[in-house]
Amino acid sequence: MPTIRDVVQALARRDGVDAVVLLGSDGLPIDSQAAPGGGLDAEVVAAHLPPLVHACDELGQHAGRGALATAVIEYAAGYAVVTDLSRDVKLLVLLGPGASLGPLLYDLSRHRAQIAGLL
């Protein structure tokens, strides 16, 4: 049976993925994988996620859409995909600008329950 670390490593090996950070709702990283030489500080990145998730949840509540499931944020140099795995665990995948988002979003949506079950 795969572990959550196996899932993080598999996501990090996908084409176009620069980094994967699994973090608690408190903003502390649980596990992370980054492309060599990327200079990603997983602790700093993870610390910035809880306020973003909270704001997305509030927007969803006020807009009648419920809690955040997945968010895609486009930046000048790529994408950030944030997925809610459970109340206490979030997954962040950072992708380069040429990455194909469709297959990743499909897999995260389709396998969210199985990934969360590994926690």
Task: Describe this structure as you would to a colleague.
The chain has 119 residues and is α+β, with helices and mostly antiparallel strands. The protein has one domain (4-117): Beta-Lactamase, CATH 3.30.450. Helix content is 39%, strand content 29%. The chain has helices at residues 4-12, 42-62, 101-117, and strands at residues 17-24, 29-34, 70-75, 78-84, 89-95. A 5-stranded antiparallel sheet has the order 2-1-5-4-3, sandwiched between helices.
In short:
Helices cover 39% and strands 29% of the residues.
- The chain-level structural class is alpha+beta
> What is the averaged pLDDT score?
93
* Biggest β-sheet description: 5 strands, antiparallel
Instruction: Name the helix and strand elements from N-terminus to C-terminus, one letter apiece.
Output: HEEHEEEH
Widest β-sheet, arrangement of strands: 2-1-5-4-3
Strand content: 25-35%
In CATH, the topology is named Beta-Lactamase
- Total domain modules: 1
CATH H level, superfamily name? Dynein light chain 2a, cytoplasmic
CATH class: Alpha Beta
- Tell me the number of helical segments per DSSP (H or I, 4 or more residues long): 3
Euclidean distance between termini CA atoms: 13 Å
> Could you estimate the helical fraction of the residues in percent?
25-40%
Query: Total number of β-strand segments?
Result: 5
Overall radius of gyration: 14 Å
Q: Any guess at the CATH architecture? A: 2-Layer Sandwich
From the spread of the alpha carbons, the general shape counts as globular
